[in-house]
Amino acid sequence: MKKILIIIFSILSVSCASQLKKVNNIDKPDIADSLKTQRLIEQYKIIFNNQQKEIDSLYQIVAELQDSINFLNSTIRIKNNAKFPDSLFFAGYKFDLTNERLRQKFIKCYKAELKYAYRYIPRSGKYFPVIEEILQQYNLPADMKYLATAESYLSPFAKSSVGATGFWQFMKSTAKYYDLQINQFVDQRMDIFASTKAACEYILWAHKSLKKIGANDILLAICSFNSGLGNIKKAINEQGGKDFFSLIQRKSETDDYIWRALAIKYIIENEDKIFTKKFGREQNLLSTCKTVVLTLKGYYKLDDWAQAQGTYIKQVWELNPWIKIYKRNQYRYSPINDVIISPGTYTILIPKDSSPDETKLARIEKRFLNKNDGYFAIEHIVRKGENLSIIAKRYNTTVSNLMNINGLRSTTIYPGQRLSLITNYSNYYVVKKGDSLYKISQKLGISSQRLIDKNNLLVKNRAGKKIVYIYPGQKIYF
Q1: pTM for this predicted structure
Q2: Which comes out higher in pLDDT, residue 331 or 439?
Q3: Which fold does the domain 87-274 belong to in CATH?
Q4: CATH architecture classification, 379-477
């Protein structure tokens, strides 16, 4: 591995030297010639952007090589005399492995998950205590922690080809119903606390719904987390069975989902019997960090808050993978990085040994409760004499952006009108031909009045009467 790294970073050095040589060979700018200066800046941008891509690509190769080595090492550790019991238990249900068809199903999943134990066994030490505590709060089986393992191998950064993200692989469309914030500032699908609570709420909801049709089976509720409740109910209606072992799932992936979790449970609980050497465990998250609850009514930077907590912003960002970097205004060759959090209530991890300044902290957190303050103003109330051009200039944006955010078809505005200045890009509906506000509100499960207020949909007609006006292609935010 060391030889490979030396070769790769030798290539990296040559690449950087080559790019710098190109930079040095560029003619020095003639200050009097603004066009030449601009062309020079563009050339610099291209060179450094290409260089950064090469660096990122080489680091990716290193990461993949390291992952391959870990994979091979874990395979070498596997003993060859695996013997399985006649039955296994998961979430209180017995899986009969004397049934040859079921036994082969288990063995197939066992072999597939065995090779990736080097990923999830170490992480289990870090995340299982957190998940177990939340499961207990919701009175759900502790074995559900193996579902998160099957979903993401306990990586907050796990992402599927269709966009499912985080520990529990929530899709955006599902996550929003459980108040998981997803925008350009945060993605709570990557928050171990918020996402686990959302998964628990979904399972309880699905179980309650299934019980109403006589299918009192937590395994089927778990299956619905993968395939959707509609597919489970359809299988019940078509096949007549009302428990996991009496149904053929409509999607094979859904059936595998339970068996994979069972196999992972068996592997983790029998690590010493399966491997010649145990894997190390990452430290319990709750032993190295403490949680603080933070409420924001506006969009705020957390730099001062982090220092008042006795830490610094980069450490907060590293400990909380759901917090994104907000890239603003490009400066020369690179955008500027900020950590900004959108309105909401969050559970934030900080180092356990950090010592807060309570007086300073109270002052900062009080300011965080101001709704229209902070890094961004959220809305602007139109004053007499103002137009969109004046407002756009004030907030360093454009007229077209304000019109798009607020669904305006013309630049006409009136005193007292509330204009949104920030958009949650994940939560909007695009109006289709034939849509009415009533139809849209029914689809979204949101009242018409809320949509009217949020999107400023009331306009004056020629008679001066206020009416609701929407049009195909318009974005309705909710």
Answers
A1: 0.71
A2: 439
A3: Lysozyme (1.10.530)
A4: Roll (3.10)
